[in-house]
Amino acid sequence: MHYPLKTIRTTLTELQAQQNYVLHIDTASTENSLPAAIELIVNSTTNATITAVAEQQMFWDIPASQLVAGTNTFTIRYAGGEANWLSWDWLEICGSWQVGLDNGTQSEFTRETDYSPDYFLSDPVWKHCRRAVTIGNNVQLNFTLSQEVLERYLFTYTSEIILQGGDNPTPPHKLRLEINGNIITNNLEVADNTVVTFPDVKASLVAGNNSIVWRNVDTGGWAQFDYHKMEMALPPGAPKGTLIIIR
Fold this sequence. Notes:
Elements: E1 5-12, E2 21-30, E3 36-42, E4 45-52, E5 56-62, E6 70-81, E7 86-95, E8 97-99, E9 118-120, E10 132-133, E11 139-145, H1 147-152, E12 154-165, E13 175-179, E14 182-188, E15 194-198, E16 208-216, E17 222-233, E18 242-246
């Protein structure tokens, strides 16, 4: 018996539906090792067909324009080919992410002494993310990346420092950003309501678990954040839409 369709349903918030994603499949085998054509349908949009055999990496880039707030369907459809079937080892839907709204307030987050410094992107409750850094109280965001996605894409991290306080010393305070222990910026001093963007942090990312850490490295005071955002994009000149990588 053949099962020509496999549908994955996932719920996205309004903010999540504004991000770009990728569906990545690591194929396992095909009938007699022959090629099979696979098509991806996202909600009402039919994306390009990819022809693949065993042990290949298949990518469909999904723009935010194909997504909706609420339930989204990702349908993987057998579309023909010399093989009657294709199986996969694993698949993932991943992409850009944002924690907190770009709205000039840290009210979505929690007081820095009320919760663990570790916030995991798999946790939908933003109140589990600290709003600020003080001396000895950090903000840490944890997320995972596959080796295949890390190799293909570029990554840009953005945050906004909306309010600083304390009079010993007076603001602005010296801040440090680390990714997986690598110092991205040190002794950063900016005014309130400043957006800071780090356009190429790929070299500091790893396959598996990753951490972004903000620290107050001044002698006192505090700094609050409006939001944290990681944008994933193809390198300039890279093929868009679909891609097959043969290993």
